[in-house]
């Protein structure tokens, strides 16, 4: 399994919005500048997030984007599943996969099921709030 550029940028964008949630609605231009990501690329990611309801949008002069929920309510797994269309290491263990005709006799199926469980449990155990706290702690350690 490999996380695409879209997934990595989406996670960076969500962390940035979490860091600036007190600023109200944040423009994509500002996020793009801070994160070093193309604004056009972020616009594509925002379209995906708007369909899933994870962002609030405001149009106009002071418009922009903000998280629809608190940072502690978003997991890395949720964000990556939205942008990556799932996190399964192989298609046969995907959440919406059709049952494979060989699943009853497949000697490797337990490996893929276990790996899928580990990946999802790990990524669902990390919230945007956790990332903010880790980032803040590492910045404080560096400044000492």
Estimate the helix proportion, in percent: 40-55%
Characterize the overall form: globular
**Gyration radius, in Å:** 18 Å
Annotation field: number of helices:
6
Largest sheet: number of strands, sense, barrel closure: 2 strands, antiparallel
**Contiguous runs where pLDDT drops below 50 for at least 5 residues:** none
Q: How are the strands of the biggest sheet laid out side by side? A: 1-2
Helix and strand succession?
A: HHHEEHHH
End-to-end CA span: 38 Å
Residue share in β-strands: 5-15%
Describe the structure.
- This protein is mainly α.
- The protein has helices at 5-19, 28-35, 39-52, 76-84, 109-124, 128-143; strands at residues 55-58, 64-67.
- A two-stranded antiparallel ribbon has the order 1-2.
Summarize the structure.
This protein is mostly helical.
Give a topology summary.
Layout: H1 5-19, H2 28-35, H3 39-52, E1 55-58, E2 64-67, H4 76-84, H5 109-124, H6 128-143
Antiparallel strand pairs: 1-2
Helix pairs in contact: 1-2, 1-3, 1-4, 1-6
Jot down its keywords:
mainly alpha; two-stranded antiparallel sheet; 144 residues
